[in-house]
């Protein structure tokens, strides 16, 4: 006879033989051992690319697991089934999920899975004074974000690459000023 064991465990089996001469039973203790299926790690995430800071939601698709170990590639970890990680630095990150269950351990690594870019620079500045008689010395205060280099064009032929700059306008006129944040 065949029997299907659907639950993990250790089972004893008894065979009872019945015949004209009587009955006899044989028991094999702990004869059938049914193991838990091994876990299979799986996950998705979103978004997988964007600018820093990038908050990513990780969803486990694992089977056969009761515990989880996430390694996000940026030094952060989690033991939650589903997790969120915020990447604060630009870079490319590999993510590993280890699924742990009564049937063992299984890990899935997605290489270069999360791509975090630098945010684009935003140019901004104030100046003062913005009007007066020639020669007029004007101080320019840089309010840009996400930039490391600057290029000023003061509209009178003069330029600068300083973060904050000054220009003296020697001729009367109206001038347009351009700050390029790089």
Draw up the topology in text:
Elements: E1 9-19, E2 22-34, E3 43-46, E4 49-51, E5 54-60, E6 67-71, E7 77-78, E8 83-87, E9 91-101, E10 104-117, E11 125-128, E12 136-142, E13 150-153, E14 159-160, E15 165-169, E16 178-181
Parallel strand pairs: 4-10
Antiparallel strand pairs: 1-2, 3-5, 5-8, 6-7, 6-9, 9-10, 11-12, 12-15, 13-14, 13-16
What does this 3D model show about the protein?
By secondary structure, the protein is mainly beta. The protein is built from no helices and 16 strands. It has a 5-stranded mixed sheet, with no helix packed on it. It has a 3-stranded antiparallel sheet with strand order 3-5-8, with no helix packed on it. The protein is rod-shaped. The protein starts with 8 loop residues before the first strand and ends with a strand. The relative contact order is 0.14. The mean pLDDT is 96.
